[in-house]
Amino acid sequence: MSENSNPTYTTRYILLLIISMALLLLFAYPVSNLFTKIGSHINYESIGFWIGYGTVCLVAIVFLIIAIRREYIPHKNLTYVICIVLCFYLFLRLDGVDEIALLPLNKLLKYFDILIPIGVLYTILLSLTLFKKSRQKSLPFFLEDNLYEEGEIANEKILQKLIISLKDFWPSSAFSVGINAVWGYGKSTFLRRFKAEYEKKEPKAVVFWYRVWKNKGVNAIIENFFHELGTALRPLSGELDTEFKGYVDAILKLPHHELGKALALGGEMITGNKSLEEHYNSINRILKKIDRQIIVLLDDLDRLEGEEILNTMKLMRTLSDFNNIIFIAGYDRQYVIESISKPKDNYIDKVFNVEINLLPFDENFILQELLVEIEKISSQQANSEFDTSLINSFKELFDNRQFVINIEGLVSTPCTQKSLSYSDFLETPRDVKRFVNEFKFNIGFLDSLTDVNLSQYILLRLLTYKFRYVQDLVLNRMETFFSKGKIDSVNNKIVIGTGFYNDIWLYKWKPLDGSESYNPKEQEILRSMLENLGKLGDFEVINSVLCQLFGEKGIEFYTDNPTSISKIYYTDLYLRNNIAAGNITLSEIQKAFETSKLYELVDKIGTSPDYKEFSIQNELKYFAFRAKPQTREQFEDLVLSLNIFMSDGTHSDDEKVLAILKNGVETFYPNQGKDFIEFLSNVLSISSIGYLDRLLSSINHNLKRKEVGENYPGGYTKYNNNFFSDELKSLLLHKLKVLINKKAETNEILEAYHLITEKITPQQSIIRPFEANNLLRKEIVEDFLKYYDTPLFQMISDKADKREAEFRGYKPNDFLKQIFASEGSYNKLIEQINNPEAFNDFEKDGMNNLVAFLKIMLTKTQGNEKDKIVNTIKTLEKYVEKGYKSLNQKEFQEVWGQNNYKQ
Question: What is the C-alpha to C-alpha distance for residues 153 and 159, in angstroms, rounded to an integer?
Fold first, then answer.
């Protein structure tokens, strides 16, 4: 309860205000004369006075207006001062005291009249802050972990028995009651309920909290305890404040070692010191006169450290050993024993006269609390599916007759099981509220409840709530604990770890002998890991949950539950809570795939500013690797999508994509190889250069490297799934034709051209197919100036790069010579690929044809561009004169001039 809302405090405040006002009125005229004398020394006509007076008034009014707008809560002392000043001034004003200087306006206004508008504004501010209504708030999303609400508690019978036992109990020395329970069992709720009930039945008793955990150090524990005890007893006695202060001062004046003895021996130290003894006896005598039960509630001893716990217990047992005082302390006995330095001395038994153990919550009570909160979630949802499916799933979760993953559904028994219940995961009402908060937050990520098997989803959330380390220990390392299996519907069985496509995760181990029987190896791994973590006691529950979620079941189960957590295709949706990346969810990706609209989704990701293409790329990639197309449409949609979102991946990724293509051909194109190549050709035609273009190019290029064999120093990369190598060239040529026909950008056309490799010479020179050279030559002839500005002509034009020339010199692009070579010289080269002379003749033929072409272009070009072509021809002629060797910088400058090229 806040200070301002405390009735006792408010009464004292009003009383102080009345007394202060009465004293001012008693001396009203002397005070008025004092102000008049002060005012007589002020020059009211001066500019300085008016500036100062106006500034003070303006600042005060502005600050009050700002405070009103912000609904600022003023300090109580400021309110006190303004009330006193305003009331006293109004009295003087109405009483007609004229000695106070007047303003010149008809002598109606006085300088201090500014206090009236200030008072009005301050009254408005107080009204807004003290009497404002609470804002209308919507139902909170999260449940608050409140300790006590009206009504009976789980340990109500114990509480009522304690109330009866303490009634009319007047101990001659301090009496201590311990309330023992582990965290979450309701110690704080019990004490709050006790306070409320006891004050109703024994209104004269003094019951107050001492929150010892807010103190740090022995001095603070002693000082604050007696301060709060004195505050609680102040309305009953005016003597105790002084006695408590003297008693505390006498204790704290002791040397440190003596203070330790006082805490340890209590009475012995007191009787040995007259001052302490006198204060002690006085306090005891006053408490007898008060004749009230004094009950001190101490909660959360188990928040303290060892020495703090000891000091608090010594305080209860020695320094506070007065008449009529009863301590009731809540703690976790095991924690306290392990924390204090004297566990073997049974110290805790010496401190507490009686210890009460709170009973654990009944499982039915926990279940009812849980169902009440789940009902609230259902009622807050507009979607009707929440009304029934969610609450029913919670009700039936551990009902073996209804539970969808019951023990009888398991195929084999070595996956050992414990009969689970909610008490294995939720022990207290606090657990229920915290679990519901997490569950409500997490389930909000699902697009629909039908995306998951609700029973499995709830069981998984219970597991990760109770045993939070399981997410990292087990679920983030699926390969360690689970095998992969494939559903063999034909033979009505599960086949372990075969082929590229696997359907399900299995909590079992594939033996080395290749048999399919269970082996408890995963369970032994789990047991060992938990033992290392010191959590072996959790094994039975965790193992049982994993068995129920991932244990092998009959084929019918997987058919009837297509969204089961064990289905590899859906596992991440559970484990990652349907979160992918950007603004895309896993279920969106899955639904797009199922409806053969994955390409549309991928296209939207790539073009919409609302999505983050790079952050979701891996999500799409891993989804594609585990997806299992059921129809040709799904397969073709997947391949089309792969070409868009896959970037240049690792060799492992490439192999997985090739495996997808191979399985698709075998499944959906049996004996229809031409149809598949046509489909793949169409895929490549849809977009600009994509992942599949580069993958096919890489396969083709490495095949050409392989042909060179040992003569190729760099070696080559082997692709295990190269099942359409003969069609690679035609597919890549088709892509080049498509881009040329589409009038694509020159950089795209040139990239497509460079993807195709026909041969590699022993000198590692790459030869493009004649068809590709011919296609590109026609393009250059048709639109020469556009290609003149590309890298093809760079080193023989005004765009020559000096930095590149430092390494290679100024010479025509090797592929430019290929593009203009004749078909005869090309065929001769292919026939004699290992003959260096054939390669030289091929390049010379290309050079001659290139120069001839440029001379033709010279007749068709005007202006500055014509001058550039003239210089390009001169550069080529100089290159030929030099024996087909690169020009140096000086030679190049002789043609182009000092500054007519890129530095």
Answer: 9
